[in-house]
Design goal:
This protein has 56 residues and is α+β, with helices and mostly antiparallel strands. The protein has one domain. Helices cover 29% and strands 29% of the residues. The chain has one helix spanning 40-55; strands spanning 10-15, 18-24, 30-32. A hairpin with a 2-residue loop joins strand 1 and strand 2 (18-24). The longest helix is centred in the last third of the chain and has 16 residues, at 40-55. It is globular and about 25 Å long.
Length: 56
């Protein structure tokens, strides 16, 4: 994951166990959901909702 995003980015990453949604914070800190999503579409929908929420 290192180097794949900047502060305030949301990164989707496919791993063998599913699609992970990562949030890049201050100083490159990474926060993620506890479990992966089964599909890209689910992960993308969640990332879009999180982006809309943080924009408010």
């Amino acid at each position: 994951m290192s180097g794949q995003g900047r502060e305030d980015d949301i990164v989707l990453q496919e791993l063998p166990d599913g699609w992970w949604v990562h949030f890049i914070g201050e100083g490159g800190a990474i926060d993620s959901y506890d479990t992966p999503f089964a599909s890209y579409r689910q992960a993308l929908g969640t990332a879009k909702a999180a982006a809309e929420f943080s924009a408010e």
